[in-house]
Specification:
The protein is of the alpha+beta class. The protein folds into two domains: about 50-170, no CATH class; about 175-294, Immunoglobulin-like (Sandwich). It contains four helices and ten strands; from the N terminus they run H-H-H-H-E-E-E-E-E-E-E-E-E-E. It has helices at about 1-70, 75-95, 100-145, 145-170, and strands at about 175-185, 190, 200-205, 215-225, 235-240, 240-245, 245-255, 260-265, 275-280, 285-294. A hairpin with a 2-residue loop joins strand 9 and strand 10. Helix 1 (about 1-70) packs antiparallel against helix 2 (about 75-95) and helix 1 (about 1-70) runs parallel beside helix 3 (about 100-145). This is Chromosome partitioning protein ParA.
Length: about 290
């Protein structure tokens, strides 16, 4: 009888031991997955910051190039001021840590403003060059200075080709007015994540006459406070890698401002904290904003 009790005690002890080993293994795997997800988010944030730095530098260089292509003192002074402002913002960005979401968001908004201002200057200077080209042709016909007119036309063609490259950069779309709302089962807005049954994301695509018209797909990527991505929108290419999307929507874009609304059905409870909403199109991140919920 005593041996039987010892045998039963040994079996129970073995089962408890195996359960403890299983629990420890589960915790280790879970923590390892979390570390990998956090590392992936950090890498994405670093890529985004590097892309912003490259754009700021590129815009500053373009201002310098445009100053060399015109002779209007007033416009040159304006371009100089904008170049100095762009270089100052670039310096601030380089000094900002990757995990400083508030400052990164501010500088991303400033980048959109710099891009819009640059786009206007590109269009204005291109228009001035075309006008100058037409006046030169007319003057050459009147004065019969065919050879001189030909040299000026060749020079303007070179400038136009350079400006065409800048227009391509200025054609990048911008997502503005980004909002994220939690909806309860009655479709009413709520800040309580435990009552959320669906997520609504709204944003507008700013007017851009330099962007190519046609069918465009916009991807919304929502990152949770834990660093995971709410899935359901397939995947898309960004920075030579495939990223997971939460939602996507395809529209016909005609260069005018467009407002978009997308919905995501909640299949499990959402956690409290800060969510990052990022908008992508044409292989670029065109907007991003953070939202906090209880």
């Amino acid at each position: 009888m005593e041996n039987k009790k010892k045998l039963i005690a040994g079996i129970v002890g073995g089962i408890v031991g195996l359960a403890l080993i299983g629990a420890v293994a589960y915790l280790y795997i879970n923590l390892d997955n979390q570390r990998k997800e956090n590392k992936a988010m950090q890498e994405l944030a670093e890529l985004d910051k590097k892309e912003m730095e490259n754009e700021y530098q590129q815009f500053a260089n373009q201002y310098s190039e445009m100053r060399m292509q015109i002779s209007n003192d007033s416009i040159i002074a304006q371009l100089t001021a904008e170049q100095e402002k762009t270089e100052k913002l670039l310096k601030e960005l380089k000094e900002t840590k990757t995990n400083d979401a508030r400052e990164i968001a501010r500088l991303k908004k400033e980048l959109a403003t710099v891009r819009a201002i640059l786009r206007n200057y590109v269009i204005e200077i291109d228009s001035l060059n075309r006008l100058n080209h037409n006046l030169t042709e007319e003057n050459s016909r009147i004065k019969g200075q065919y050879n001189e007119a030909t040299r000026q036309i060749e020079g303007l063609n070179t400038e136009r080709a350079s400006l065409s490259e800048k227009v391509a950069i200025a054609a990048q779309l911008d997502a503005t007015g980004i909002s994220m709302q939690l909806k309860n089962k009655r479709g009413k807005s709520t800040n309580n994540t435990s009552k959320c049954k669906s997520v609504q994301v709204n944003f507008s695509i700013a007017k851009n006459v330099t962007a190519a018209n046609g069918t465009k797909t916009f991807y919304v990527r929502i990152t949770t406070p834990s660093g995971t991505v709410l899935s359901g929108g397939g995947s898309f290419a960004y920075q030579n890698r495939q990223l997971e999307a939460t939602m996507k929507k395809t529209i016909e874009y005609d260069g005018q401002e467009k407002s978009l609304t997308l919905y995501w059905n909640v299949s499990q409870s959402l956690m409290e904290g800060t969510y990052q909403v990022s908008i992508f199109a044409d292989g670029n991140m065109i907007g991003s904003r953070s939202f906090s919920f209880k």
